[in-house]
Amino acid sequence: MARAITTQRKTINTLFAWAVGLIIFFPILWIFVLSFKSEGDAIKAPFEVLTSAWTLESYATVQDRSDYFKHFWNSVTIAVGSTLLGILVAVPAAWSMAFVPSKRTRGILMWMLSTKMLPAVGVLYPIYIGFIKLGLLDTRIGLVIVLMLINLPIIVWMLYTYFKEIPGEILEAARMDGAGLREEVLYVLTPMAVPGIASTLLLNVILAWNEAFWTLNLTAAKAAPLTAFIASYSSPEGLFYAKLSAASTMAIAPILILGWFSQKQLVSGLTFGAVK
Amino acid sequence: MATQHSQSAARIMMAPAVILLLGWMLVPLTMTLYFSFKKYLPLRGGDLGWVGFENYTRFVSSSSFWPAVATTLIIVGGVLVITIFLGVLLALLLDQPMWGQGVVRILVIAPFFVMPTVSGLVWKNMFMDPTNGFLAYMWRAFGAEPVQWLSQASMPSLIMIVSWQWLPFATLILLTAIQSLDSEQIEAAEMDGASWFSRFRFIILPHLSRAITVVLLIQTIFLLSIFAEIFVTTAGSFGTKTLTYLIFQRVLESQNVGLGSAGGVYAIILANIVAAFLIRIVGKNLDA
């Protein structure tokens, strides 16, 4: 039996939770508000900011002055590219670990997880010098490769978790009906695995989009994604609130929307299935 | 039954992922180890030969080492305490019946999706700026002198920024764990006259302990290597130089690769100690 909840208690919960939620969300809301203000209005006192005129000029300036969409496109290429490449490599691996487990499967999964814990700064110089030697510094392909490798353990783990939930009997039935390995993968497994692959894709695009160690250290002007582009507002451009806000809004809006869709997968994905 | 045939097919399918990760791990790691035993200054003479453990002892005995360790521990510890404490409270609150629960949840988890450079810069300029920042206006509205956040209170400010980013993560995981709690158990305790506190202390908290451990370990691994937030706010000044940042400066700013690499090896050892605990917990789950 469900507990009876008084309306009064529910009202208090609601008010309190909304207040807390809005406080936490406030900085993002404020970025959004300031992005529609002129530079002069954006530095006024908060109340005056709200009553001042709304304008789109900052968005135009950011694009004109810094070729914003080039960096946006770099982010898209790097995030989506590294994720797709990662999935391409991870699907066969996760498939075989989930359906043809051997004595070593567990060990391999654990080892993959452990590579994720290697602190990036510990291998900064070798990667940096390697990138220079191979001509990969400040290229999108270089970052696609690095981010793919960083997220590969998470991708394998997530896919493995999803694949394991597909009942093995179905595969056996398919084999009984004479399906070979190829047919099995193509016609039986793939349709059932699509939702899992989709959520893996979603979460990893988010992680790659926001990655800010390698993107800052391995790019300059040409291949810089939004993380590095925004860092260029460090100073003194950061004092131009409206422009910083407009650039930030465009950098976080797409991922915020994707993120809200990925809430559920986020928990099991980021805890490697330890919390579901 | 897995046949001999499918076993070998499985091995081939696993190969690309395993080989890539093995290369990604071993090659840079070996190079870092190699450099860490050399005097290597790319801009001032290059490879100046083997020096044994000198880089290791120099890194530890440099005047910036212990402050960096302290800074790292304070940031990691501070953020962990704040995010887990508030995360438990927030998860309990969000678990209560209310109107618009889904929307509140969305508002609360949003900061997690903001890229680190954006949150660092937005907090630094638009909120913590002592002249035009939002907080400065708030302070003045109450007749107080605005605080020079990132210079006078650099560590609390940084901890606040990073906590804001990680609170959603802790909350979301703890909320998921609370929601998996059997509500009948709580109802039974309530019927038996258990107070709110004892229900929390003896039912909810033990149930959450595993989730809290997971949050603790995962956040520790990420927090040990925070970089962008410091890079765009203080750039390591005002006592905010963490171990990660110190190594970054040694390697890329002062181009003392040997010394930086020795620091990198220390960082790897530190992360491995934490990782060993996390892997044990995740591994337990794998058997279940």
From TrEMBL, chain B:
<feature type="transmembrane region" description="Helical">
    <location>
        <begin position="106"/>
        <end position="123"/>
    </location>
</feature>
<feature type="transmembrane region" description="Helical">
    <location>
        <begin position="158"/>
        <end position="178"/>
    </location>
</feature>
<keyword id="KW-1003">Cell membrane</keyword>
<feature type="transmembrane region" description="Helical">
    <location>
        <begin position="12"/>
        <end position="37"/>
    </location>
</feature>
<keyword id="KW-0812">Transmembrane</keyword>
<dbReference type="InterPro" id="IPR051393">
    <property type="entry name" value="ABC_transporter_permease"/>
</dbReference>
<feature type="transmembrane region" description="Helical">
    <location>
        <begin position="258"/>
        <end position="282"/>
    </location>
</feature>
<keyword id="KW-0472">Membrane</keyword>
<comment type="similarity">
    <text>Belongs to the binding-protein-dependent transport system permease family.</text>
</comment>
<dbReference type="InterPro" id="IPR035906">
    <property type="entry name" value="MetI-like_sf"/>
</dbReference>
<feature type="domain" description="ABC transmembrane type-1">
    <location>
        <begin position="69"/>
        <end position="278"/>
    </location>
</feature>
<dbReference type="Pfam" id="PF00528">
    <property type="entry name" value="BPD_transp_1"/>
</dbReference>
<keyword id="KW-0813">Transport</keyword>
<keyword id="KW-1133">Transmembrane helix</keyword>
<dbReference type="GO" id="GO:0055085">
    <property type="term" value="P:transmembrane transport"/>
</dbReference>
<dbReference type="GO" id="GO:0005886">
    <property type="term" value="C:plasma membrane"/>
</dbReference>
<protein>
    <submittedName>
        <fullName>Sorbitol ABC transporter membrane protein/mannitol ABC transporter membrane protein</fullName>
    </submittedName>
</protein>
<feature type="transmembrane region" description="Helical">
    <location>
        <begin position="65"/>
        <end position="94"/>
    </location>
</feature>
<feature type="transmembrane region" description="Helical">
    <location>
        <begin position="211"/>
        <end position="238"/>
    </location>
</feature>
<dbReference type="InterPro" id="IPR000515">
    <property type="entry name" value="MetI-like"/>
</dbReference>
